[in-house]
Amino acid sequence: xxxxxxxxxxxxxxxxxxxxxxxxxxxxxxxxxxxxxxxxxxxxxxxxxxxxxxxxxxxxxxxxxxxxxxxxxxxxxxxxxxxxxxxxxxxxxxxxxxxxxxxxxxxxxxxxxxxxxxxxxxxxxxxxxxxxxxxxxxxxxxxxxxxxxx
Length: 150
Fold this sequence. Notes:
five-stranded mixed β-sheet; single chain; Collagenase (Catalytic Domain); alpha/beta
């Protein structure tokens, strides 16, 4: 299973904090689960911070919460990825320090892992996946995030 990241954000300068956190997560853990198979046709996990609209609830309207996304792989075969959509208000991104935002990012992932609506297919070993991914996020909490120098 691969781990990836992407994001949907506005173009404010302070979003660099969120980009840096997301990029470091991918850089540190993209290959961590590459030899793990949990079953089913789920081949990846994608972390997607969403921070576009300042109005409360607007991001959730535009970017619907979903836990699985089907797509075609390079061979044209259907597979699925687990999606963690992290809704973070842009005003919060602006206000929080880099370290506070880093911890909040981790909190949002853990919250979704424990969400009773976070259901995965029966042929997927979700208990093992959740345990492994929880350990990854807890390890990420301990990492030092640095903004690139201008």
